[in-house]
C-alpha cells in the first residue's frame, strides 16, 4: 500500500484524508502550518485524531532539520499538499520517493499564488478549477498531472466556489492516485509565457472603491463573503461590512458613486462608477441587517459611503 503525509488544514485537510482513503492510500500523518491558528487548524487536528494519525507542525526554516528527520523516519512515498499556508523547503520536498503533489485551487499557470480562488471571482472569471501538480522549489511552478475545470456562476460567492474546489480536488486525487503511487503520473511542464502570480490579499484589500463599476464591486463582495472578512466601506465613523449586493437593472438613474439614493424593503441602492448596486445584507459593529432592516444600521437616502 502506498503511503502519504498530508500537509493541510481546514476542511480541505479532511477532504484529503477521505479521498486518499478511497483511493487506497495509507495516510501516515498530518502536518499543520506553524503560521496558522484557530478554527480551521482545529478542524484538521480533530479529523486526524479521529483517524488515529500523528500530528506534526512545520516549524520555521531555522528549525527545519529535526522536522525533516521526523519526516524521513515516517518514510512516506508521497507528500500531499492541499490548502497549506507555508512554503516547503527543498529538504522537505526531497523526502518522499514519489515526490510532493499539490492540489492547487486554481488553473495553472494563469493563477499562481495563495488566494487565487478569490482573485478569480474578483476578476469576473466565469470558469476556474483545480490543478494537481508536482511541487518544486518555485511557487505553483511544478509540472502538471491533471486539472478539472468548472463554472463560476454569476451569483456564486467564495463559499460556493470553495465547495466546488473541494469536490473537484477530491475527484482528481482519487482518479490520479494510482498513477502517482506507481510513479507513472504525467509531468507536463507549465507554459511560462502564460504564467501570472497573484499576491496574498489582506483585509484592507476589501475596501470598496465606489468609483469602480457596479459589476466589479459585486465581484469583490462575492469573493469576500463570510466566513471571509468581507468587503467594507465607511458609514459615518463606523465600518460597514457589505455581505451581499445585487446589480440593478434599470429602475431609475444612477446616483453619484457611493451615494445612497434609496432605502426600502429590497435594500439600500447606491451609485457606483458605472451603474447602481443594491446592498441586500450588511453589518456594522457586529450588528447584521438584511433587506428591510438596513435603515436600522444608519443607511439613509443622501448619505455618502466611504472612502
- CATH fold annotation of the largest domain: Rossmann fold
Strand order of the largest sheet: 3-2-1-4-5-6-7
Average of per-residue pLDDT values:
95
**What is the chain-wise order of helices and strands?**
EHEHEHEHEHEEHHEEEEEE
- Poorly predicted parts: none
Number of alpha- plus pi-helical segments: 7
Distance between the termini: 58 Å
CATH uppermost class of the largest domain: Alpha Beta
Helix content: 25-40%
The largest pleated sheet is described as: 7 strands, mixed
Nearest-angstrom radius of gyration?
Answer: 22 Å
Question: In terms of structural class, how would the helical and strand content be classed?
Answer: alpha/beta
The CATH architecture of the largest domain comes to 3-Layer(aba) Sandwich
